[in-house]
Specification:
about 180 residues; alpha+beta; 8 strands; elongated
Length: about 180
């Protein structure tokens, strides 16, 4: 321990390490707390809803749309171009499809990453379109195809690691006769 004599005055408190260490921990806690508060205010938790009844009704409506697509025998295969933005869609349906249909790519957790593209008829049962930007790197995406009148909808799940194609709806396979 250091002894102070009459010749040596004591050091001021701000030159000692212990007060700074003791003040430092609460100061760092306040700064980190403010950073977390700012992050919580800026980010929107899109997974939380405040109106469960409306969401439940919307789910029932979407089930009707999927049943309508099944009755039409509608299925499709979506192919992504090498640029990650261009799309080709091969369809199969008992009913005539419109000249333009909507495609949505839904990120499972962040609705900020969702993308939409207008698919236009390019030939018999063939549509093409371009995404507004390249999808962010994710393990999987939900892909939804629907008409503009919201009468039918088919969907699928795309896992980019498995390839550049995704099957939408349930394909109806018929046996080939020889």
């Amino acid at each position: 321990m250091q002894q102070h004599t009459a010749h040596q005055p004591p050091r001021p408190w701000y030159k000692e390490p212990w007060p700074w260490i003791l003040f430092g921990f609460p100061a760092v806690s306040v700064v980190v707390g403010i950073a977390f508060l700012m992050a919580a205010i800026k980010s929107d938790d899109g997974l939380v809803t405040d109106d469960y009844y409306k969401k439940g009704k919307a789910i029932n409506m979407e089930l009707r749309r999927e049943k309508a697509a099944a009755q039409m025998g509608l299925s499709a295969q979506l192919m992504f171009g090498s640029d990650g933005r261009s799309l080709r869609l091969a369809t199969s349906s008992k009913a005539k499809l419109p000249d333009t249909i909507s495609l949505r790519m839904v990120h499972p957790a962040q609705d900020d990453y969702d993308l939409a593209a207008e698919m236009t008829l390019a030939g018999p049962n063939l549509y093409q379109g371009i995404l507004p930007k390249t999808p962010v790197n994710a393990n999987h995406w939900y892909v939804l195809l629907e008409d503009h009148e919201k009468k039918w909808r088919i969907q699928g799940e795309w896992k980019p690691a498995t390839g550049s194609m995704v099957q939408l709806g349930q394909p109806h396979l018929e046996p080939v006769e020889h």
